[in-house]
Amino acid sequence: MSFNSLGFAAFLPLVFLVFHAVREEHRWLALLVASYVFYASFGAPRLLLALLLVSVATYALGLCMARSSSSRNRRAALWAGITVNLLALGSLRYVPLLSTTGPPLPLAIGVSYYTLQAISYLLDVYAEATPAESHPGYLALYLALFPRLLQGPIERAADLLPQLRRPRPFSYDEARHGLLLFAWGLFKKVMVADSLALYVNKAYGDVHAHAGLPLLLATYGYAAQIYYDFSGYTDMALGTARLFGLRLTENFNFPYLATSIAEFWRRWHISLSRWLLDYLFMPIQIGLRRWRAAGAVLALLVTFALCGLWHGARPNFIVWGLLHGTLMSVALATAPLRRRLGRNLSLARRVSAVGLDSTRLGEAAQVFLTFNLVCFTWVFFRADTLSDALYVSTHLFSGPVALSSFLFFFGPRQLVLTVAALGLAVAAAGRDRETIAGESFRNLRPAVRWASYYALVATMLWSLATRRSEPFVYFQF
Amino acid sequence: MISERLKKTICRELDLDDFEFEDATTAGQVPGWDSLSHVRIICAVEAEFGLRFRTMEVLRLKNVGDLQALVDARMPID
To answer: Which of A244, A307, A317, A373 could link A311 by a cystine bridge, Cβ 3.0 to 4.6 Å?
Structure first.
């Protein structure tokens, strides 16, 4: 039961009604049962079992750490918790990949997200950055909460657990806001990302049949597809959570407007990059600080290789991660030189560790360069094999340049629809998304406003029922 | 209260002429202080005061006030 399915369109209103019908003190239970039913709907009981085991172990070991005065015992409990989570992640996600023959790979959705969240909870309890949760129900709900169970955001305990404990009475504005955010996310997913996928999948499905412009367009198309797919999902997750009075972490902040790769990672999949930064990069870098720049470079490469591995045990993902690690390392190594250069040219007003600050033109050039570097790395992320990726990366500018390439895989109707949907999404990005969800329809007369709401719901149901929907890209991770 | 010596060390490492630090100042509020320059600053502070922090102590720092407190706790009392 994915967010973009008719089943979810029936499940969500039902859970919403039950949540607000039961007494305040039982609402956590309503949400927890709903989350387990949601997870069970994927027809893989071992996933639910693994989630339950991870929840019990994380709860018990968190309390064990909090109640123990011996630093040795605390450290043992931390490592036991990390091991349980890594075992769950490894056995469900990576071990099945080792067999090259046999039945299709079993589902492992959600595992990568809730295990990282459980590890972050344990590390925060160990570092005394958050208290251990004493209520097993809240801890279980923190890990299982269905709006964020499948693809995040990966929430810090200090951000989500206090919200779960707080009374959350019904609020018309919050519910309305949540539904509009959900609708906006669904539009981004179904109308923009899925339309672009038609083009991208055809080009990347058989890369050796193409060269030049079709591959270049498919690569830019994939950059847009993966953004609208994942940010669309995130809007739907954030919108769903708001129906229950919960605020989840933003995962995107205009990532393609970043002026450096480091900034890109502060704007792209923010909850994952924050996790990698806090729990992997910083400890490694601090541990290796005697090695100065070499330590930082090693920490970057290890972090990004593991970031690639987290997306899947394929050489493509590891190369993609290492490319980002290498680009960041180059930026780090050249930062002092670029700062001096900037000062000498009297361009620098503010000092940035990874990019020159200069005129708006210079900033635009940095955005352009960063965007194109990121797009180049997406080649390795999207291609099915490493040899496909190498072929695409060496054939982006070869082959005949014909205008017909724009229509290469699209019929004229599909092209118009895709460009219109993409244009609308880009135009709307100029406005604050909170404002869009908060202000849309508000000033209309009640009859027109409600007619608009019903039309919107009908369109969404129609699109879910009639279009063949692509699974979310980040579903597989 | 942030000491002049700590302030100068941070500013030198970030190429800043001057900056008004308060106890609650976080890295994000200081130009150039990001995750990549953070460890450089910690190394510079360690060198300046002749100290060596533990990894967990550095990871627990939330603001400049925490850093000052960590330095004060480790410095011999005059």
So the answer is: A317
